[in-house]
Amino acid sequence: MEAINFTPFYPHKGSVYKMEEFHPAVVDQAYLKELGVTVDPSPETLEGLRRGSEVFEQRLKAHKLIPEQRYFLDTIDPLQEKPEIHNYTGRCPTLTYEINPVKGCSVGCLYCLVSDGVHEQPLMAHENYHLYVRELLEKHNGAGSKNLEHYYYFSPKTEAFQEATLLTGIAHRILREFIDHFRRNPESKARLFIASKAGAKHLQCEDEGESILDLFRKLGNKMQFNTSVSIMPDALRDLLEPCAAPIGERLAAVKLCREAGIPANSALVQPIFPPCLTDSEIRRFFNALSEAGIINYKPEFLTASMENLAMLGQYLGHFDKNLERQLYEDYLLPSNADHRKQRGRTAPDRKRSLEDIQRLMAYTDTLGMSISICYWVRMQLGLSEETIPLVNRNGFQCLGYQRNLF
Description:
By secondary structure, this protein is an alpha/beta fold. 37% of the residues lie in helices and 14% in strands. The protein has helices spanning 29-35, 43-61, 129-141, 163-166, 170-184, 200-203, 212-219, 234-240, 247-259, 279-291, 306-319, 321-331, 350-364, 375-381; strands spanning 4-5, 70-74, 96-98, 102-103, 124-126, 150-153, 190-196, 206-207, 210-211, 223-231, 266-272, 296-301, 370-371, 396-397, 401-402. It has a seven-stranded parallel sheet with strand order 3-6-7-10-11-12-13. Strands 1-2-5-4 form a four-stranded mixed sheet, with no helix packed on it. A two-stranded antiparallel sheet has the order 8-9. A hairpin with a 3-residue loop joins strand 14 and strand 15 (401-402). It starts with a strand and ends with a strand. The model has no long low-confidence stretch (mean pLDDT 92).
């Protein structure tokens, strides 16, 4: 197969390979002590940090930290693909099918929930993936189906609107399948849910004379667009999200959707680095979301394997060693060792997490925002149904699904 090279829509000025006076270290007991970390991690945790430090140094030297800006095209057998249901906890209240037309991701987030920040695999785009979407819609919403209320999530395992799906027309063809489906089945109970780091340029990319935004307009209230935004300093974000649109551009995409009549007033806020969650940052960040029309958000604190944390901590420490110390304090407590989400990724200290969620709620409530908290988080932190209703006052549920679309 021939590789197709591309230039990112939003190339960043900073680079993980050109950081002045940055030298990777081995995050071990001595390193933590010198940093001022007071917790005493378990031997298993220390081994993970040490192992991650070694892998980080190797990948940094080999320039293997972020994905190469190229993709390969292949095809799938649409009749042989097995549907994936998006349900991490086993208790998610909403039936959701995944749409993942690409293996890999060119955005290259170094905290990636899917790959733990490893982006060495070739980026493979399925050129005929829309045919699988057609089959999926027909099976669950066509003639003779039960036609129950449910969503199609585009895309939980990769970025829906990256160069490999936009420049090839893959994303456009997937949206056209939904448009055609609703034309043929106006009573369909399917709804399209999109969570994306796309900026305005991504939504304006055309295929056969139609932009992504043009296709959104045709879908109207049969779909929901959720921007995905992170809380961290801009300089750190440029390193950890090397090919993502800047936050301002993502909020510009939200405004474009809202002007086009697309439900786009909920946000996935992730990842949240607890040390960066100052009162001033909370105000600045959520004021910007509110000005863009966001009325609901789902906060997700950084979850990471110890191997990944060793890398992320050092990047944070490049800007502020005290923030790096706080990060390890939040994640390395032995009592926090069982605070793990899917695939064994560790979440921050439960007490700190609860306090931070309450701080977020206290401020965003003044902006009229509601908050979506998933079942796993509620159980881990002891949040009651009374504190975080499953369906809250603005009509959102779980990941931020807008139930009023039905």
